[in-house]
Design a protein that fits this description.
Length: 110
């Protein structure tokens, strides 16, 4: 009985650690959004809701080809084609996908 309890407890701790690290990407994406996107697209609630989850998924395929196309000829073109975007793209995608218009989720604080 003691061994089963230990295994259960270890599993819960491991699951808790996984949940925290999975959520960290969304938080990093929110920070990237607030820093790079908010000035044109508004707060995170408004910006993420511009597209559905499937549209956000598609936008970030092939190194963000669709995302880059959307920003061609805008003030954000330099960001979309630069190293900052490459570095934050996965986190930004996680944030935008998590709060897409069809997700039913609403980000807190921006």
């Amino acid at each position: 009985m003691k061994k089963q309890t230990s295994i259960l407890l270890a599993s819960l701790v491991a699951l808790g650690m996984f949940a925290t690290s999975a959520n960290a990407d969304i938080k990093k994406g929110q920070k990237a959004y607030l820093k790079q996107c908010k000035k044109c697209h508004g707060n995170g609630t408004k910006g993420a809701a511009m597209k559905t989850q499937d549209e956000w998924e598609e936008a970030f395929e092939d190194n963000g080809a669709v995302f880059k196309e959307w920003h061609k000829g805008t003030k954000a073109e330099k960001y979309a084609n630069g190293k900052k975007f490459e570095k934050s793209a996965a986190d930004l995608k996680d944030f935008l996908y998590e709060y897409g218009s069809d997700s039913g989720n609403v980000p807190s604080c921006g």
